[in-house]
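Lecture notes, part 5. Sequence design as translation. It can be helpful to think of inverse folding as translation between two languages: the language of shapes and the language of residues. The source text, in structure tokens, appears below.
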């Protein structure tokens, strides 16, 4: 709160019959208010301009003394920081920004191994909140095909790797390091590896890979993107300028 209220402050003894004026103030000087000593370390730009117009030569700013409580508090907080590396994976921002925003493409899959070799019409939906894809097949009436809920359930669609598909568990969001190895008996100690040494990286289809006329690989099936709705077109015009 207010330490000294607004009023005329007398000078310290033996000049207590006089009062402080603007002539008593300067940077890097000390003043005494009722027996308590204060050090002026700096002032704002308006005060500097005012004193310069009065012909006062300003002293250079002084350093602020360290606060023992702040120093001790900072030391305690630094000691609480983990020494092991930690990687924070934050997907909340993307979810909050794009929740409910879905891109929709109309696709065709021409199955060469089908009995009648007729193209299969599909609808691909790309969810911007978590970069997942699901595909639904449009089955005509009396086509002789069984109706299934989804042609591809909602998931991140990986791009087909040249060496084949990865086994479950090969690709993980985090990797660890064995600190001791076999040097200290049979003891093992693992820490999080934020550099992901030796990690297997797999590319997934993103919104930048989807466009009209593109061919994507859906688990070995070549799907052609033929068209999209107006909302998707506006999204690509706004973000990518196409």
């Amino acid at each position: 709160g207010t330490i000294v209220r607004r009023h005329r402050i007398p000078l310290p003894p033996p000049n207590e019959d006089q009062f402080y004026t603007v002539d008593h103030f300067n940077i890097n000087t000390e003043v005494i208010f009722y027996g308590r000593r204060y050090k002026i370390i700096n002032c704002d730009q308006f005060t500097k301009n005012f004193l310069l117009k009065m012909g006062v030569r300003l002293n250079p700013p002084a350093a602020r003394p360290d606060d023992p409580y702040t120093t001790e508090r900072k030391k305690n907080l630094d000691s609480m920081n983990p020494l092991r590396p930690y990687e924070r994976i934050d997907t909340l921002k993307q979810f909050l920004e794009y929740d409910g925003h879905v891109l929709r493409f109309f696709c065709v899959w021409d199955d060469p191994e089908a009995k009648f070799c007729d193209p299969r019409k599909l609808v691909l939906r790309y969810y911007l909140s978590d970069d997942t894809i699901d595909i639904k097949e449009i089955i005509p009436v009396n086509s002789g095909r069984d109706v299934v809920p989804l042609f591809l359930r909602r998931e991140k669609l990986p791009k087909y790797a040249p060496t084949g598909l990865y086994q479950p568990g090969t690709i993980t969001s985090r990797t660890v390091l064995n600190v001791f190895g076999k040097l200290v008996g049979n003891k093992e100690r693992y820490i999080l590896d934020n550099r992901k040494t030796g990690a297997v990286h797999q590319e997934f289809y993103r919104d930048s890979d989807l466009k009209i006329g593109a061919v994507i690989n859906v688990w070995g099936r070549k799907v052609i993107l033929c068209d999209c709705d107006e909302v998707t077109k506006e999204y690509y015009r706004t973000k990518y300028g196409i």
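The translated text above is only one of many valid answers, since several sequences can fold into similar shapes. Strands lie at 29-33, 36-40, 102-109, 120-127, 132-137, 152-155, 175-178, 190-193, 215-218, 221-228.
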